[in-house]
Each structure stands twice: as C-alpha cells, then as structure tokens.
Design goal:
By secondary structure, this protein is of the alpha+beta class. It contains five helices and seven strands, in the order E-H-H-E-H-E-E-H-E-E-E-H. The N and C termini lie far apart (about 65 Å).
C-alpha cells in the first residue's frame, strides 16, 4: 500500500469518472507518494504544515496501478526532510541511506485507490493522524440497518460458538468428576 497526500479540495474537484491526476504529474512528470502512515505524517509536517486547508490521503494498492511506479530518492535530499526525528543520526554514527519514495509516472486509475482518509491537524497546523472522510450523505457516519443487523448476527454467532465451547468444557470436566467418583 502506498499513500498520496493531497488537498481535499483537489481530490473532490477531480472528475470521479477519470483517473486521478495530481498537479505534480504535469509539472514534474510523476505523482509523489510515500509508504506508511508515520512517514506520511512526517513528510506532511516537513513540507505542508504551513499550508492551509484540509488534506486527504489516498490509499493506493500498488499492484492495481496501471501507471509505472519507481522507488526513487526525493529532491532535495536533506536529512530534515527525509528522516523522522527518531531516526536522527549522531555526529559519530554513519549517515543512514535516505529513504526511497514511490513516484507514480502517470495518472492513478480509480480502481487502485482502495481508501481515502482525512488527515487530522492540531491548532498549530501540524498533521497528527487520520480520520474517516465524512460522507455528505451520512455526516454522522451512521451505519445502515443492514450493516447493524449483519454486525449483530456476527456477534451472536461468535457468542454462540463461545457458549458451545464452554458447554463442551463443562461436560468434559463433569465426565472426569463422574469417573473419579465411580472409582471411589
């Protein structure tokens, strides 16, 4: 799974019936991406903390992409931009190899986008985590009656299975006790 960060307004303005094209595809020849939530948050804070607006992250299944993906070093290569604080290098330690990032050389076909999440920010503008993207048709993120019914059935089935295992355990223990009593 690779991730692409973009302004929510850009994502929502993109035609839903066409592959997604970030601005960088026209200006740089590829779409920037990363891998892993922690690295995405670090890059977002290093590059976009002062940029206003809501951001979303596109979750992309790399195996479904029809465009080529190349894992390359980003530019500019600065330790502050590339390495999270916990990976800082001391003066005496050897310099770690800079991470490589997935660059998507073409548009992102919609069936490769398997999820979209809102990126949360604190009052200072720092990116802090992720939340479900609100659905305008369901702003409270309520489950449908069929979703609730399915969840209740799954929970009931799991409870029934646990109860059956408990019953078998009790019956086995009672049989052991009966056998011990007979031997007395």
């Amino acid at each position: 799974m690779i991730l692409h960060l973009t302004l929510r307004a850009n994502w929502e303005a993109a035609p839903a019936d066409q592959p997604y094209r970030a601005d960088s595809l026209a200006s740089e020849g590829f779409i920037h991406a990363t891998q892993g939530d922690a690295l995405l948050l670090h890059v977002a804070n290093a590059r976009y903390k002062d940029r206003p607006g809501e951001f979303v992250v596109l979750e992309i299944d790399e195996t479904r992409l029809t465009s080529e993906v190349r894992w390359e070093a980003p530019a500019p290569l600065t330790t502050d931009d590339l390495l999270p604080p916990e990976a800082a290098v001391s003066d005496t330690a050897p310099v770690a190899e800079a991470p490589r990032f997935p660059h998507i050389y073409g548009p992102i076909n919609r069936d490769a986008i398997v999820g979209v999440r809102l990126v949360t920010r604190d009052a200072s503008g720092a990116f802090t985590g992720f939340a479900p993207l609100p659905d305008p048709a369901n702003p409270l993120n309520l489950k449908s009656p069929s979703q609730m019914a399915n969840e209740l059935l799954e929970a009931t089935d799991a409870f029934s299975e646990a109860l059956a295992r408990f019953k078998d355990s009790i019956e086995g223990r009672m049989a052991e006790l009966d056998e011990k009593i007979r031997k007395l």
